[in-house]
Amino acid sequence: MKLYKAIVATALAAASSIAVPVLGQAPAHAASGVGVIANLWSWNWNSVARECTEVLGPAGYGAVQVSPPHDSMTKGGTVWWDIYQPARYELTSKFGDEAAFRRMVAACNGAGVKVQVDAVINHMTGQGATSYGGYGFSKYNYPGLYSSQDFHQPTCQINQGDYRNDAWRVQNCELVSLSDLNTGSEYVRGKIADYLNKLTSLGVSGFRIDAAKHIHPGDLSAIKSRLVGSPYIHQEVIQGDQEAVQPSHYTGVGDVDEFVYGRKLREQFTGQIKNLRTFGESWGLSVPGDKAVVFVDNHDTERGGSTLTYKNGDTYKLANLFMLAWPFGTPQVYASYTWNNSEAGPPSANGGHATDVNCSNGQWTCFNRQVAGMVGFHNAVKGTGVANWTDNGNNLIAFSRGDKGWVAINNEGGSITRTFTTGLPAGTYPNVAGGGTVTVDSGGRATVTVPGKSAVAVHTGSTPQPGDKEATVYYRTGWATANIHYGINGTWTTAPGLPMETACAGWKKKTINLANATTLKAAFNNGSGTWDNNNGNDYTLATGTSTVKDGVVTPNAADPCGS
């Protein structure tokens, strides 16, 4: 909503800096039951439906969080925050109508992905007179729904000092001039519950409660008591140092969005990640792991400067990989659109309605795809603890999750080769954080090269199967070293990719496990900034043996080294 970024930035800046605990402390356990949440923020319903079917379900995501589906005041697509100013509870939003919403929910549920809705129930609008659905309203009058008596009266505005000094004003006055619903009213509670119950009747499984900090937890409990079934609830309650309203006040209602988590990861991934050995609640996180929804960033924090964002490139990806590998909270992966103006809304047409997501035009991050392999890792290691921690005293860390998975994260600029204790049974495992394979010996050890700003992660249940497909690529070059940077089903290795071995004079070689895929996209580089990307088109390579020479791909080729 408008100025929400200012509220977030202020609250996070107020949180005190916590010293890193003594190494050796056991990490907190993760939450269970929900699975990894993909937060597809500002994606329209058609795009969410397609992503659930083609990406989220196959990757093992447990849920998708979608943007508010209610009818809202409209700014014609120019801003992102109009969707956080509800005009009525009809499902005629900038992301599609009710029919499209129903189709999306059905498609996601059919793919095994539960749907969570971002529910805005603290307030209505602060400006405007017309909604995306063509509905007319004013700030305290919503014909057929609410009138002035349904808002906190007399009106008051939340002042900055109220956050530390006056919980009543934080929960009863207006947040950035948005008309504050009287959630203590039985009528208002009934209307909110009717809206949420309609969504669950359509197949929605849970809710993210927007601005929960500004609703008394007793009011939220009363609304929750009116809900049909047991929808999953997590609440936006931003922790501020010594504030009167704290996230811990809301754990009796449901889980809580853990905002301190992303700020702490930013500190470490722009410093030394060796400290993450003890990462958990003792670092000053606001709620225990079994009550926390954790994320590297979301739509508010990426605009507030307190967390890493997609603009941080590989560092951002590594922080997300760590989140999916580490046992704390229910992880949420954020994917939205690219922006330069922090106020700007998503790509839109026809009066501000969000257009279909295109993951190849540079307008959308589609980041959920970049870490899809680690979702399987997270699922495979559920319930295990951290063991076999290794670090280099700086920005390389590695650890196992029981005997189910092992990960190494290299936040340094250059490649590092080591022999690691993985804790895994002997075998050959595909690297789900990038590409290639890792061979573990009978003692659980593996010698692994981790490229700079990259990661290697393997887990049980992911060993190459007899039916898996492979592509062996020979690349003709005069470079002393060569890397192959490739993507399978839209998920790419981190640049510069993986090192290729010397096959014979003039030829480099790499064998890649494709699982069920039949092709991959690839480009080559010398590790020092010189690239061969087929004039910007990348190379398309198929299963079997292929050669790439002078810009020409030869499929089903003979071994050019004659071996």
Automatic annotation (TrEMBL):
<dbReference type="GO" id="GO:0016787">
    <property type="term" value="F:hydrolase activity"/>
</dbReference>
<feature type="domain" description="Alpha-amylase C-terminal">
    <location>
        <begin position="387"/>
        <end position="463"/>
    </location>
</feature>
<dbReference type="InterPro" id="IPR031319">
    <property type="entry name" value="A-amylase_C"/>
</dbReference>
<dbReference type="InterPro" id="IPR013780">
    <property type="entry name" value="Glyco_hydro_b"/>
</dbReference>
<dbReference type="Pfam" id="PF02806">
    <property type="entry name" value="Alpha-amylase_C"/>
</dbReference>
<protein>
    <recommendedName>
        <fullName>Alpha-amylase</fullName>
        <ecNumber>3.2.1.1</ecNumber>
    </recommendedName>
</protein>
<dbReference type="InterPro" id="IPR006046">
    <property type="entry name" value="Alpha_amylase"/>
</dbReference>
<keyword id="KW-0106">Calcium</keyword>
<dbReference type="InterPro" id="IPR006048">
    <property type="entry name" value="A-amylase/branching_C"/>
</dbReference>
<keyword id="KW-0378">Hydrolase</keyword>
<dbReference type="InterPro" id="IPR013783">
    <property type="entry name" value="Ig-like_fold"/>
</dbReference>
<dbReference type="InterPro" id="IPR006047">
    <property type="entry name" value="GH13_cat_dom"/>
</dbReference>
<keyword id="KW-0326">Glycosidase</keyword>
<dbReference type="Pfam" id="PF00128">
    <property type="entry name" value="Alpha-amylase"/>
</dbReference>
<dbReference type="InterPro" id="IPR017853">
    <property type="entry name" value="GH"/>
</dbReference>
<comment type="similarity">
    <text>Belongs to the glycosyl hydrolase 13 family.</text>
</comment>
<dbReference type="Pfam" id="PF03423">
    <property type="entry name" value="CBM_25"/>
</dbReference>
<keyword id="KW-0119">Carbohydrate metabolism</keyword>
<keyword id="KW-0479">Metal-binding</keyword>
<dbReference type="InterPro" id="IPR005085">
    <property type="entry name" value="CBM25"/>
</dbReference>
<keyword id="KW-0732">Signal</keyword>
<feature type="signal peptide">
    <location>
        <begin position="1"/>
        <end position="30"/>
    </location>
</feature>
<feature type="domain" description="Glycosyl hydrolase family 13 catalytic">
    <location>
        <begin position="35"/>
        <end position="378"/>
    </location>
</feature>
<feature type="domain" description="Carbohydrate binding module family 25">
    <location>
        <begin position="468"/>
        <end position="544"/>
    </location>
</feature>
